Amino acid sequence: MAFKPKIPIALLLLSLLAICAGLALAMQDPELKQCKHQCRHQRQFDEQEKEQCQRSCEEYHREKKAREGTERRRSEEGSSREESYEEEEFGGEHEEQNPYVFEDEDFETRASTDEGRDQVLEKFTKRSKLLRGIENFRVAILEANPQTFISPAHFDAELVLFVAKGRSTITTVREEKRENFNVEQGDIMRIPAGTPVYLINRDENEKLYIVQILRPVSVPGHFEAFHGSGGEDPESFYRAFSWEVLEAALKTRRDQLEKLFGKQRQGIIIKASKEQIQSMSQHEETPPRIWPFGGDSTHPFNLFHKRPSQSNKFGRLYETDPNECKQLQDLDLMVSFANITKGSMAGPYYNSRATQISVVIEGEGYFEMACPHRSSSGSRGQREGSGSSGRRSRSGPSYQQSRGRLRRGTVFVAPAGHPVAVIASRNKNLQVLCFEVNAQGNVRFPLAGKNNIVNEFEREAKELAFSLPAREVEKIFRNQDQEFFFPGPSRQQEEGGRAFE
Amino acid sequence: MAFKPKIPIALLLLSLLAICAGLALAMQDPELKQCKHQCRHQRQFDEQEKEQCQRSCEEYHREKKAREGTERRRSEEGSSREESYEEEEFGGEHEEQNPYVFEDEDFETRASTDEGRDQVLEKFTKRSKLLRGIENFRVAILEANPQTFISPAHFDAELVLFVAKGRSTITTVREEKRENFNVEQGDIMRIPAGTPVYLINRDENEKLYIVQILRPVSVPGHFEAFHGSGGEDPESFYRAFSWEVLEAALKTRRDQLEKLFGKQRQGIIIKASKEQIQSMSQHEETPPRIWPFGGDSTHPFNLFHKRPSQSNKFGRLYETDPNECKQLQDLDLMVSFANITKGSMAGPYYNSRATQISVVIEGEGYFEMACPHRSSSGSRGQREGSGSSGRRSRSGPSYQQSRGRLRRGTVFVAPAGHPVAVIASRNKNLQVLCFEVNAQGNVRFPLAGKNNIVNEFEREAKELAFSLPAREVEKIFRNQDQEFFFPGPSRQQEEGGRAFE
Amino acid sequence: MAFKPKIPIALLLLSLLAICAGLALAMQDPELKQCKHQCRHQRQFDEQEKEQCQRSCEEYHREKKAREGTERRRSEEGSSREESYEEEEFGGEHEEQNPYVFEDEDFETRASTDEGRDQVLEKFTKRSKLLRGIENFRVAILEANPQTFISPAHFDAELVLFVAKGRSTITTVREEKRENFNVEQGDIMRIPAGTPVYLINRDENEKLYIVQILRPVSVPGHFEAFHGSGGEDPESFYRAFSWEVLEAALKTRRDQLEKLFGKQRQGIIIKASKEQIQSMSQHEETPPRIWPFGGDSTHPFNLFHKRPSQSNKFGRLYETDPNECKQLQDLDLMVSFANITKGSMAGPYYNSRATQISVVIEGEGYFEMACPHRSSSGSRGQREGSGSSGRRSRSGPSYQQSRGRLRRGTVFVAPAGHPVAVIASRNKNLQVLCFEVNAQGNVRFPLAGKNNIVNEFEREAKELAFSLPAREVEKIFRNQDQEFFFPGPSRQQEEGGRAFE
């Protein structure tokens, strides 16, 4: 209290807010809060089910508290590290939500018709300043009914598509040349910024489900769609010009232009006839795709046609190779796909440089992550100059658990350096698509299983670091002989899963 | 003590202003406002002419409203997209001006003497957060009388010069070597950051007019000039050192140093004698310039000595080629120059990646641009989750026209992806210098004339996109057979031009 | 109409604030203020000594004012340039401290035990927005007692170490391989982001003193340490996972895990036994280091084994060569080390592109720097449009001196383009380690001595720039025939040094 009196007048209001936030945090654990929040936003639940769900959260929370009582007590000590970080960076702002998990309600519907919709995830920095490093990436998900047409547009953003489900034909125009690409599940395709593009769902029955990552080229963190072909809906950008200019540019009388740019009213995603679909999906005149492809080819390539980089009975990991995949190189991006067998888990591990943006494609489960930014520590003591012993205070950061439930459409972020584990429910495989931003030179360091980093330390380092005989340390870190994918928590399998399953 | 309580007051005021701004926006159309604003700032107008001019604005505005009544009604629907964008990005801040046009009053005079002046355009981000992508570029214009000397300086910015008018000798010092370059209209020259440079107007009669683009290397968006040689005006930075240090460094007694650094009082741009000019313009000992030049040559090159990349009787476009022009490559910059024949127009077109900063060198006219950021849309409806039909709401962005009058010295910005057209008055050719920022891999997509993108679409795509038979679409988009430059709006030519001409 | 009057109100308030700030500035010179500030923060001083010290500041200040009276009068003219800059950039915020000097109290102790501590300099942008260009670099200093172990960790930052004192063995784990490096004074080593690293002070008597520069890869300007090996202190990040997940991942029962992650309580820097030290310092199985080394080797290299790039009896300068030092290339970083002989000085000079972050390793002295950002000018006059003569106002920027005392641990920043000189006390050599950020293509331009830039100007340019006969200018700029290092201020040597010595 007596610590900050220098700024008080200006920050009086802010302090009040901070105190309120503090109280709120003390009264309600963020995990509990999020659990309840998720209950309230289950669309398929009715009011009664929502209440029941929230009660389960509380019950789970009470149990967990009791179970972990002793070791989690540290979070009550001193000032929170989050606070000091926030003060340092942003003048006391508080994050109330888990900054790393995004649900349905965090998407904005940019376009929607009876035949489908395009949803864009909110800006990462809107959620938390901790995500500034990926500010200039946006995630979007396109869904379209069978036999539909998605209207031509260009974007002021670099665009990478992943076909999560269904079959599409994607058409682009570059350098006065049209190219058509038939794509299917697992295909990745880069659309350079500004390129006119349109596509169809060429399947008669299956929905098309495309996950997109966009990197804006003009306004950092923000992009727009530009529809030239259209009328009232989608509105054509030609209509923003005066009739005089349009008449001169297109050498066409106004009445004809009014007709041309006034007819379309069905929106961006519309039904196409069987004949139209057939015709458009047979235009692929480009040579067959060969793996690996070179140069700056814009051809899509299929992630699932590669050998998995990790594979055992607990899961499979498919990854783009930066050398093969020139299209993604200048975006400093890698794409990977993990299929975690039901009841199994991936990690813990961490990425050395990359921040991983993951989108759940199918299945259920949860993740756990160790976060120094959000945790409490006794760091205040050291600030006042120490080194002189007496009562000892903690000498490094403290880590708090970030945890989130995963289901289809959930997006979660694992920043560089942060240890993370992903656990599949025991009912269904968990399929996760990952975009790795800042990918160049990235290394994945395993924290368990074969080749985990502790195993590599010298005997003396193990002794000194853990304050235990080296052989005891070694024994534990050599127990697990699988790599990357492991059998999941046994408790979960035996008891039916408390942990968000 | 009395220093800090200001913040609450400031916030109070800001809140009031925000409310006022909201009201004001409702009451007055931005375009009308800008038109009147321009009237009030015509230096050559007397008070009566200014009033007349403002009345014309109102008249024009009334007419336009009536004319466009039906199709522009949409702007009244729902919440504005600008607002939602602004809220998303910047917490509700309002743009009051057209963010893309800059006039005389937006320049700051950094240096001024009887012989000339150096004017710097305000930071782009001061005008609008939408210009964050070009934050780290600044535009400046130097004017100097015949037979003048512009004092030596270095800058904490990369500097690219374009000689818009006149003849100069530019001298730089690099690696213990002086180099002199005789430059003339159309010459482009890169001055690396920190390089000492001085120049002369070597012409006996003509003014020198140099347009500069600067990319700061130290403080993003901000640069400074450092004058070593000088005295009181320009002040020499040597004077900021203590006499003790200067005495030791220059091994010279203080009285002599006081004389050395105390004499100059005439400022940065000063008259030179005929003999001095003659001597300095004959020092060019460097080999003659050959086109194309290679390596990291710092030699200037002339844009007008190239073959134009577009040329017909309606205009000519000269462009630097990134491969030939190594000097600009690491700045990710291209320079182009459009000479639009009187009564003609360029575009509409858009740049795929580059943001185009244009400076009007000569002539008059106007531009029109389609802006999704500033326009209104019914997007609110979709936010609340749709896809379930019933009453349909618009499925994509809406575009607003950004329009601005062009005359000598006007700067306007066309961000990546934004469709834009530039129209010359019928009295005089319109000459526009363009800096394209973020130039690598940029493609210009034509929206009218030969090779326009709609022509490339498949028949089915045209049908589906416009909801019209393909042949009707094709007929219109094939009417115009010119490329890039077209005859201007006929109405303008017949009626004497309502549109800002 | 109701639209514009807000701006005058806003300006009114700003003007009032500006006036207040002006008064405050007039009342207390920043240099005096800093001098006194330094007095108050001398830890070794008692209250009486602090007061005495502050009185000396005032005395020195009075004398200096009198001495420099006439030529410094300009600072009273008109509005300050700092103001206009600050308004332009940051809405009127005022810098109260010298933004370029950092002392003990500007470090935060991140980790501290009886055996040593790790201190991190505050974010540069916390001090001043002027340092935004180096926002994403952080400086840290590690001190460890003889025969100690620094616990394993990885960082979400690229890390460059310089061994300022002592002998260490540094161990890293990369690609399932451990590497040990014996390093000593002068060694520079790059640790890629995310790499697990631990080290020892292998000397029996000498303290280890390592200066680090870090470039965060995840959150700009912010990094965290991740300790996996540890227990309660340092806290292991494994503890942030649930026991269920840890049991499954490490295939080990909870009671054993609780023991493993509960034992360590001694902190990050701990005593090691003689045997442990001996064993760990003999593990270096890597081939001997050869100079120059190629590829992307991660081997350390020694700056002092190179030929100095500048050397005379007044000082020596050692520099990394970007071509030899591949490790630093992608960080756009250079490292240099200046050993300035007692009573001598380096510069004045400036860097063309690089911003120089200097850390004083040993000795005492001071620096002087010319700063356009912080100085006053008559620029207000020109804003209202001039060029029309009458009463003349200054035509360019004005420069203010930034000056700071240097002693062990002081950090100071010289931004690109800023002329700077560093002066050693006459008692002891001054040793300064410099990190040059934005190093690619950087050129150091000398402002005195051999090859100074003024010497390179043409005769006519000298005449015109200084308004003096060319031979008078030449005479002075040729007096000093040494290069880079010069004998220091004679006054300082004769009188015992007023100037902060």
TrEMBL record, chains A, B, C:
<feature type="region of interest" description="Disordered">
    <location>
        <begin position="372"/>
        <end position="407"/>
    </location>
</feature>
<dbReference type="Pfam" id="PF00190">
    <property type="entry name" value="Cupin_1"/>
</dbReference>
<dbReference type="InterPro" id="IPR050253">
    <property type="entry name" value="Seed_Storage-Functional"/>
</dbReference>
<feature type="compositionally biased region" description="Basic and acidic residues">
    <location>
        <begin position="56"/>
        <end position="83"/>
    </location>
</feature>
<protein>
    <recommendedName>
        <fullName>Cupin type-1 domain-containing protein</fullName>
    </recommendedName>
</protein>
<feature type="compositionally biased region" description="Low complexity">
    <location>
        <begin position="374"/>
        <end position="403"/>
    </location>
</feature>
<feature type="region of interest" description="Disordered">
    <location>
        <begin position="56"/>
        <end position="100"/>
    </location>
</feature>
<dbReference type="InterPro" id="IPR006045">
    <property type="entry name" value="Cupin_1"/>
</dbReference>
<feature type="signal peptide">
    <location>
        <begin position="1"/>
        <end position="26"/>
    </location>
</feature>
<feature type="domain" description="Cupin type-1">
    <location>
        <begin position="301"/>
        <end position="474"/>
    </location>
</feature>
<feature type="domain" description="Cupin type-1">
    <location>
        <begin position="128"/>
        <end position="258"/>
    </location>
</feature>
<keyword id="KW-0732">Signal</keyword>
